[in-house]
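ok trying again, last paste got cut off:
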Amino acid sequence: MRTLINWKDRQVEHPHRVTLVNNGDGTYDIQKSPGRIEEEGTPQKEANFNNMDLGIFEALMVAEEALRSSRLNEQEIGGLDAEIHEVTLNNGYVYPFNNSVVTVQLDKLRNKNSYTVNVEVESVIGDPGCSAGDVQIYDKLNNGFKVHFSGSAKTATVKLYVRGGF
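nice, full thing came through this time. structure:
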């Protein structure tokens, strides 16, 4: 269980006051001289920051699970036009070029190409710090479309939620 930290700023009598200290060699140092401390403030320390980081991480995981659940519910009640495709995009990894284009064939032929495709990045593989970047859907036709990612990952696995177009 996370504990809320009621963060407080340090309050001092003279927050912007400084003193010039003569070094005796023609130079001066600037030294803060804030006066009396009126409120100590919340310590900026490892335990407080780790508590905050873990709380943010937990909130993101809960939000992601809620989004995934919502999408599954949408598909269940979305009617006959809802489709889910899982695609692994491979970057040719010829830096700085990315040739990760994949053509996705729709299970059901659409009457028009005004369908929507929502993207969820499932995983990425590559160097530390790599990402899928932007996942782009383009060249939409009644029977399929192309998908591409612009990031630095070697591979990206994405779920594509297709709705509408009838």
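cool. The helical segments are 46-77. The domain at 80-163 is CATH 2.60.40.2080 (Immunoglobulin-like).
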